[in-house]
Amino acid sequence: MKHLRIIVIIFIFALTALTQNFLQAQTINFRFSTYFYSWQRLDSLVSISGTAPTYTTHLRGYQNLMFDVNYKKWTFTTFTQVDEDVTNRAGKGFNYRLYNMMIKGSNLFDALDLKLGRQYVSAGSGKGTIDGLYLKLKLGKNKEYQFIGYGGYLSPLSYEFEKYLQLKENFLAGGQFLYYGVKDLTLGLSYANKNRKNPDYYALRPDSLFNTRTVLIETDSKADQVAGIDANYRLMKKHNLYGRGYFDVNRKKFIRGEFNGNFELMKNLRLSAGYTYRDRR
Q1: Does 165 reside within a domain?
Q2: Three-state SS string across the chain, please?
Q3: Number of structural domains, the chain?
Q4: In angstroms, rounded to a whole number, what is the distance separating the alpha carbons of residues 123 and 254?
């Protein structure tokens, strides 16, 4: 529990400092939740001599921390989870996951949204958690033209701060154009370039004489370039049609398509139908 107490103390000090520095027109949200999970593990079966099997009892604590500070058009937000073995350590005994930690600027200059830090990006064909920058520019009389651009390092799958690999081998960058100029219609065009390289590792492999030896396995970077279109249309405020399609630029092949329809047949009866196509990856 030592690590958990340290994390909680750090957040309390941060909350106190921010409260003292921003005493005007700010909103502070802090949420802390905890729960414990216990299980028994069988360490040995009944032996030949007839002795009873032995068990070890484990207790693991989980803490979720959510923290937001809003000041005018700016917001600092973070969400993290820490867990630690209370009894009978298994593995490292302590883990943490930082799902997001970013600064957001909303409607800056009445036209720009900005996010900087660890964040989840969902912009048409581009999806993933990055440590980077996200921009949305809103133009037009009614802000019917919106341009999204983003880029950054792909966060580790464990959401920890591990040893970062080269940026050119682990990144997500792309953009999206959204159009809201026709009533009840949303149209989006997107492009994403994504590279992820898994860490190299050591493994036992046979040589030419079939003797095993330890070798370094160097993995390749998985590269994806995908272009896509998304469309959503609300008909007569009763029916809804949605469709999207994605094209793999590298392989020059259609890789995913989806269509969904929701129809109001009568006052208390609706019909939904959908079709999804996914190419083998």
Answers
A1: yes
A2: CHHHHHHHHHHHHHHHHHHHHCCCCEEEEEEEEEEEEEEEEEEECCCCCCCCCEEEEEEEEEEEEEEEEEECCEEEEEEEEEEEEEECCCCCCEEEEEEEEEEEEEEECCCEEEEEEEEEEEECCEEEEEEEEEEEEEECCCCCEEEEEEEEEECCCCCCCCCCCCHHHCEEEEEEEEECCCCCEEEEEEEEEEEEECCCEEEEEECCCCCEEEEEECCCEEEEEEEEEEEEEEECCCEEEEEEEEEECCCCEEEEEEEEEEEEEECCEEEEEEEEEECCC
A3: 2
A4: 18
Q: For 228-240, what is each residue's pLDDT tens digit?
A: 999 999 988 889 9
- Asked whether the CA dihedral 194, 198, 199, 200 is positive or negative, the reply is negative
Domain around 45: 1-107
User: Considering 65, 85, 107, which residue would you say is the last residue of a domain?
Assistant: 107
For residues 65-94, average pLDDT: 87
9-18, 133-142, 157-166: least confidently modelled range: 9-18
Span of 29-43, 67-81, 226-240, 245-259 with lowest mean pLDDT: 29-43
User: What pLDDT is stored for residue 211 in this prediction?
Assistant: 84
Asked if 127 and 230 sit in the same domain, the reply is yes
- Among 264, 248, 246, residue whose Cα is nearest residue 256: 246
pLDDT at 8 > cutoff 70 = no
Locate 118 and state its tokens: 């660890």
